[in-house]
Specification:
Elements (H helix, E strand, L loop, with lengths): L4 H16 L6 H6 L1 H19 L3 H6 L5 H13 L6 H24 L4
Helix pairs in contact: 1-3, 1-6, 3-5
Length: 113
Amino acid sequence: MSRSHRLFLRDMLEACEKVMRSEGLDFHAFVRNELVYDAVLRNPGVLGEAAKKVPDSVRARYPSVEWRAIAGLGDVLAHAYFALDDATLWDIVAHKVPALAEALRRILEEGDA
């Protein structure tokens, strides 16, 4: 039995919510806190893998979501994690993930997604 793409969208939202638990930290506190940093670092990989499972038809309906970039980030973290610098990860955590979470909530609220 194939897994519904809605479950992958929920996986993505859950990963966003886990990343957003680091809110309240500034850049320097985030980078210094190894436990938080490592926990946050795992979730963009989950986002990337789940994004790859969302069908093209759904992706096409929501072009504002950067599906390819999300999937690509997962690949970078899995295969070239040393290429991601702290400032880039912080930008993802502080800006991109909250916006993605909001988009995913809207997508999931629509019954046909």
